[in-house]
UniProtKB/TrEMBL annotation:
Keywords, in A-Z order: Carbohydrate metabolism, Glycosidase, Hydrolase, Polysaccharide degradation, Xylan degradation
Keyword Hydrolase on entry: yes
Protein name: Glycosyl hydrolase
Site residues, Important for catalytic activity, responsible for pKa modulation of the active site Glu and correct orientation of both the proton donor and substrate: 175
């Protein structure tokens, strides 16, 4: 078993490394006033719209967050296929069955006031606030931002300041996520090298840094995710590097969000026999009103002859699979398959 570090120690450590004034207890996207770092037309615009027939999205993609709103699937992910993870736009994909998808514009980094043109648009996530707004969390320039819309289709309006600034919280500030507990409490997740979690504010545009805590589960690399079923919490995450064929998903269990957690187990890993590699950066969603669960994840874009340039880490594809909880509460390992899972939604 392993436990979280002391929250007090973590907050003290964080306070030494950031620039917040003494007495500040909330990190948010509103202060201080921002000055646009560059004119929009001077900022880069990069997207790869190449057709890729090996996955249901028919394109390169990575870092998925699959969600269900109003009886439809919504998928938010990194529009992949640009060298060095350099894509600068996000899209929203909508489906009724995981097989046929519509694409809508979500966010262009050139509209983010604090983005300076460095790096790309990575690893988005979505949460519906207690106020009914849809908050789109994303990475740009190594910082985590937030944007808001009235509907899950977007487009999303970015907040004027990052939610988490680069160089804070003793981790690489990427891979935001959200967890909504059974009582409706919303939590913000993020981190690379160290996993962080903190309670969201009601509008999900800020979080209480005095109640933030972190830990390093297993050989944690990135993409922390939490879901809950029958009173049991499941933390799952990616290990190794996205360019590594052994990129994989591990998980642990606890009856408390604060741990202690069980020893890690493997949930998803490569299948060299079928030329499926780099299986990781996932999320898990429950179909409302059922005990059916789906895992979305990315892997090297499939090629029947085996590894190819898809293994460079920025030519990946997103697929889906059913997730099974065993009678003892453990998770059945997910077996990668050529193609992707199809599950129509009927309500």
């Amino acid at each position: 078993m392993f436990s979280f570090r002391s929250a007090c120690d973590l907050i003290t450590s964080y306070a030494r490394g950031c620039g917040h004034e003494k007495g500040t207890t909330m990190t948010n996207a509103f202060e201080p006033p921002v000055v646009r770092v560059a004119e929009r037309e001077l900022l880069p615009h990069r997207v790869n719209d190449a057709t890729l027939p090996t996955n249901p999205l028919r394109r390169y993609g990575a870092d998925p967050n699959l969600a269900i709103f109003d009886g439809r699937y919504f998928l938010y992910y990194t529009d992949d296929g640009v060298d060095d993870w350099g894509t600068t736009v996000f899209s929203v994909y909508v489906s009724d069955d995981l097989a046929t998808w519509e694409r809508y514009p979500a966010l262009d980094l050139r509209d983010v006031p604090w983005w300076d043109g460095e790096n790309g648009a990575w690893a988005p996530s979505i949460v519906r606030s207690s106020q009914g707004k849809y908050v789109f969390l994303f990475v740009a320039g190594g910082q985590i931002g937030a944007a808001v819309a009235d509907a899950p289709y977007g487009p999303f309006v970015p907040q004027p300041q990052p939610l988490v600034r680069k160089g804070t919280y003793d981790c690489h500030t990427i891979d935001p996520g959200a967890f909504v507990d059974d009582d409706g409490s919303r939590y913000f997740l993020w981190g690379n090298g160290r996993a962080w979690i903190a309670p969201f504010s009601d509008d999900c545009l800020s979080f209480d840094e005095t109640r933030a805590w972190s830990w390093i589960p297993g050989d944690f690399r990135e993409a922390i995710w939490i879901h809950r079923r029958n009173g049991m919490y499941y933390a799952s995450w990616s290990e190794n590097d996205t360019r590594d064929p052994e990129y994989c998903v591990k998980y642990a269990m606890s009856d408390s969000l604060h741990g202690p957690w069980s020893e890690p187990r493997t949930l998803l890993e490569q299948d060299p026999e079928h030329h499926l590699y780099g299986t990781g950066h996932h999320n898990i969603v429950n179909i409302p009103g059922t005990d059916e669960w789906i895992i979305a994840y990315h892997r090297f874009a499939y090629h029947p002859d085996g590894r190819w340039t898809g293994g460079d880490g920025c030519h990946r594809e997103v697929v889906f699979a059913p997730l099974t909880h065993n009678t003892d509460g453990t998770l059945e390992p997910v077996r990668p398959a050529v193609g992707s899972y199809v599950r129509p939604l009927t309500f």
